[in-house]
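3.2 Worked example (two chains)
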Amino acid sequence: MSQPPLRYGRLKASENGIIQWYETRGKVRSRMKLRWNLSLLTLTLIACEQHGIEERTVAKGIEHVPDSSSLLSEGRSKPTDWPWTLPEAWAEDPEPRQMRLATFIAPDAAGPVEVAVTRFDGRVGGERAIINRWRGQMGLNPISGDEIENAITRYSAAGFEGYETRIESTEGVMLAAGVYEAAIDKTWFVRATVRDTLIADRLESSLFGMARSIAGVGDGGGE
């Protein structure tokens, strides 16, 4: 069975931001290979198609990875849009972080603590899936559905359902809270991981208070 002829192509970028891919065959082949070996400025592509000469145009720019409805957070909100009450003496860290709406620095006697705020579509798989993901990050085994209620504290307000948890392991302590907002079908998360229980004890009230303030529960000021 005969094989289709080899085809070669090249990418060419123009000044107007367009990348064009040219495909040819025949005598052009040896010249194309020579240019590739000499300069690396022409990309030689080999295909096994049986069509004639083709030209394909691709817009030049940044590649965008499609967002997952449950795993990627949205772009950062403006400070005036934030629904929480920030604990006293906490300050925003202006350094951008991947997948976060905002990062805050909470002062502590042992040193500053980083607190992350994120928001995701829907309920992100439910409390059990989220808690077990966090437990895995702390080096712990997952828990069953029957155990979840012992691992979290729930609260609610009109249009909001929240929960908070404290996960301790040999790797440290994670303080985390989730607040589902029905009006926008999104879940807010406030979370921090510290190295020992003493730091967690001092931070817990403020972090959980900030999360509760999203639902309008408590003053959000904390300790």
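3.2.1 Second chain
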Amino acid sequence: MNLLAFPKMIFSFHGTWDELHGQCPPVVRTFFQITLPFSLLSALMIAVAGHWHGAYYAPATPTDRWDIVAALFFIVQLLTVPLMASLIQAIARDKGAAPDYRESYLAAALAPIPLWLSTLSLGVPSIAFAAACGLAGLAASASLLYHGLPALLGIHEELDAQDISYKVFAIGALVWALLVIAVVAPVIRL
């Protein structure tokens, strides 16, 4: 996959999506090229936020707690992608599609990239900026699912594709919210 084509994928139903459907990489390759590095990026940005701007984000939180939370966040993300892949596969099968796990895993790995990238905003000590970037990442992730799932999973019926995309996004957004809460709660001692 050409990373320069990634922004187009947010707004297009075809192009790179059609190429990926025809040449879906193995799960192990997707893991090492997408899931692992982007999960690591977001975990590192949590640690960076704690070390550089911890006094701004949570003044009473010691630095070592940020490191623990970042490590846990990393592990949970690595577990979440395969779970979301299984969920995508199950929802698509309920609608009559027959995606294999590779296609479902690729969709589960591609969809959160904007959210992972939004964690770069943690390098700036601004809750409003981080929240705006997080919401933009969430919107871009929704668009990736909406535009990508029909091509990746081979769904030709528009209403079925929309239904699958909306269900996957709703569950994915809930999972992401729980991950964010899991990060925030230990840092601010809720």
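3.3 Remarks
Residues 28-188 form one domain.
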